[in-house]
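Progress note, project year one: complex with adenosine-5'-triphosphate.
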Amino acid sequence: MADSLPTQIQLEIVTPDRQVVHDAVSAVTIPGKNGYLGILPGHAPLLSELKAGELVYTCEAVKHHLAVSWGFAEVLPGRVIILAQTAERAEEIDCTRAEHALERAQERLKQVSDPTIDAERAREAYERARARLQAARRTGG
Ligand code: ATP
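Model obtained:
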């Protein structure tokens, strides 16, 4: 029999601390370094670096939102593996903490002329906080 295309994707999202997702899903949107990647079952294999952003997957017609930071994604026709430095489901995100992190990063970014400020580190913290707030605001949506 000819190879049939998979109808689902086995999605795994892991961080150094824990397995965050292990589920059969019908679609995944990944924040790739060069832009968002929309993945459906049967997608051609690819490897991508992740940037801080929102990851969305659909499982039984329900959309699930997560914030991920830097890492890597491996896409295979029936499987997606996300190795992320951090990953939180929308409902796990502490918005107050993320808002404070965003404010701290914004303050640092205003002082980039100060040689003691690491602008790249501040920008990364800003992007992580923004991704968390974006994902958290999707809960219930
Ligand atoms: P903060 O300055 O608030 O620690 P950060 O961006 O420096 O933010 P990370 O180093 O990316 O934090 O994450 C450290 C750990 O804390 C990770 O396990 C991450 O999942 C978790 N974490 C960070 N911010 C939040 C948040 N707002 N809500 C829930 N978990 C968070």
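Helices lie at 95-110, 119-136.
DSSP finds two helices and ten strands in the chain.
No further modelling is planned for this target in the current period.
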